[in-house]
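Re: beginner question about structure tokens

> Can someone show what the tokenized structure looks like for a real chain? I only ever see the sequence side.

Sure, here's an example I had lying around. Input first:
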Amino acid sequence: MKKFLGFVFFILLLALLAACGNDDKTTNEEPATEETAGSADSSGNEGSDTAEDPASTSLAGNEVFQKSCITCHSSGDITGGQAKIDGAKIHTDFKTKEDLLAFVGKNMPKSAPGSLSQDEYQAVVDYLWDQK
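And the corresponding structure tokens:
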């Protein structure tokens, strides 16, 4: 019986480690962000840090969601853990995006609250706020 409980504990520990993993940060992502921040767009205007394309912000938020949230949550067409995020409920639970950002920044991910960068939190909040 002790061997069986030990085996179950080992499997649960492995599952926990696998769920908390994927905190892999590559150096290839940062230079691409820096290069595009000041580059000219197709109209010849230079990009600015304050005015971001909503589609690219949503894409970045989707990537953060896939990397850091999917273990416990699912949203829209993205399927993940048990807690499905309801886009309409977000707007009733949180009056503003800033309220959602404060909650997510303080409480998520559940395994390591506050472990994402401010940009990652902002991107995922923008992404979630736009979900219907």
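Each token stands for a local structural state, so reading them left to right follows the chain. The radius of gyration is 18 Å.
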